[in-house]
Amino acid sequence: MLNLRAILERKASDYPTWDCVIEKIVELPEAEYEHFKTAPLRDMPFIAESTDLMYRDPNGIYHCLLVLGEGCSDGVLIEAEGYNYARYSSFIPGAREFVTARLNQLADQIIRESTQSTSNGTWSIYFDEIQERYHVPVSENNGIGSMLKNILEARPEMAELEPMEDGFDMVFYLDYCPNLDEKEKLSPDMQMNL
After folding, report:
1. Among residues 146, 159, 171, which one has the least CA distance to residue 68?
2. Pairing mode of beta strands 20-28, 62-69
3. Are 73 and 91 contacting, i.e. CB atoms less than 8 angstroms apart?
């Protein structure tokens, strides 16, 4: 079956779309998410906490909050325009899969570039660098950072990942690091086995 949830407009004359940037992801318990979807015009504390992140910039791009429900595939994109309710919103079928796919692509790029660049198996990447190079707003507390952290930690190249206030410290398995310094490349008989 190819089932999905959608909003269908009767005799729609067009489908206007806008450029949007997800500035923060909020994941609600499933019951709270379903409650929110039944009355999106109510004031919500999670929207009030993030009103400063939602706006339309001079280029006409909407900076939004994405609301997901635990265990749910869909999501709601919100630009509250300074209010505490979903003043502008869009139901997004498959929002979780969309975000996960994009963050997996980002993780691929970070891992590839980091393992190619390290000379000792360690590398740090900072959130402002991710924003500048990949155009993804990542922070310690915007939901995107924790999702990216989980994806990076699950990668086979990653031996250890330490979150910092402003980025990630990463330690890679040396087999994935082709440009190691000669001193890092120990012969098998010189390696210490436990």
Report:
1. 146
2. parallel
3. no
Cα 133 from Cα 35, distance rounded (Å): 38
Alpha-carbon gap, residue 103 to 184, rounded angstroms: 31
Amino acid 145 reads G
Q: Helix 127-134 vs helix 95-117: angle between axes, to the nearest 10 degrees?
A: 100
Helix runs in 30-186, H state only = 30-38, 45-48, 95-117, 127-134, 144-153
Cα distance between residue 140 and residue 156, in whole Å:
23
Placement of tokens 């004359």 in the chain: 13
Structure tokens belonging to residue 189: 């008989």
Could you tell me if 96 and 73 are in contact, meaning their C-beta atoms sit under 8 angstroms apart? yes
Which domains are delineated in the chain?
A: 20-93 (no CATH), 97-186 (3.30.1370)
pTM to 2 decimal places: 0.86
10-40 pLDDT tens trace: 888 888 899 999 999 999 999 999 999 999 9
